[in-house]
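Researcher: Next sequence.
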Amino acid sequence: MAANKVKKKKKMKTKDKVMLTLSIIMIIVAALALAAVVLMNSSLFSEGDLNASMTTNSEISHLTKNFLVCGYDTDDTKNVSYRKNHMADVIMVVNYDISAKKVNILQIPRDTYIDNKYPTGKTNKINAVTNQSVKKGGGIEGLATVINETFQIPIDYYVTITMDSFRGVVDVLGGIEIDSPTAFTSREGYKIKKGKQLMNGQIAEAFVRERYNNGGDFGRQRSQRIFLSALMDRLLDASTGELTKMMPTLLGKVTTNLTLAEMMDFAKKAQGLDKANIVFHSAPGSSGSYKVASGQNLSIYSLNKVLMADLLNQYFRPYSDDVPVEELGIIQVFDKVTTEDTQEAMDSIGVSSTTSQTGN
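Model: Next structure:
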């Protein structure tokens, strides 16, 4: 009996250490922490491997890595099975500069207009690629290909999570305290007040997804940054019991091509990483109505090629040569660029950000 107790205690201490280590990864790639917890479960599955041709050059792969992090709008509470009808509601490319211990996160608007050579269900929107079959060039591998070819940046790893498990994680943690910079009412009728408030899973989802009543695409991206910062703080304070409770919530709802060994390796490299060195970047461009190739008039987001080239060269190619704008696969539809001033809001939550500037 005593021996069993000793053995159990030793196992718990090991789990504590692993959980703590995996939680550090959250600081590296923000939303990646949600996947880190479930990696302790052998039932974790991936959607497939990425093409080796799109990964970081072996000569600099020990210095930098890129992660594709996506949140799917799949909702099991609405009887929609996973891997079916799941568009990418949140799309982020995370560059981890291992050598400099810096993280740059590019938020890509879900309505970003892309070439019709990619499978999008005739919408020409980047978020629809994951909704297409892998055989047609869709899925997470297809999205990684689009980003690799459009922005000319490597993609080494991916992590995805569904929105129903997103709500579950927030609820398991007893809610997340969010400091909203504005007051608004979501389309679901949730009233978000200005200032600090404890949000449960449903309200947090409404907060990060609302755009119509919250400043459009830029407002939604700002909300996502604020939420991720608050989630990082909460997870770092979470107990082993709270982290363990996340497993059933995330099981089968998170996919990644990262192995446990790779996660542990990144956790080691992340030691000493300062949260102030995490910088969010809004993709410069503007929204508007546009007739896509199928003949439909749809609301799209048009990236600005010149400003995107500058942003990518400055923050997402720390050890490789600049790529000129003409080599990018960006199709610019609108000349206007929306100016967003988020620095003050980001400073208040301890996370830096860059903003798009007015120009052509």
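Model: The chain has ten helices and 13 strands. The CA atoms of residues 186 and 206 lie 6 Å apart.
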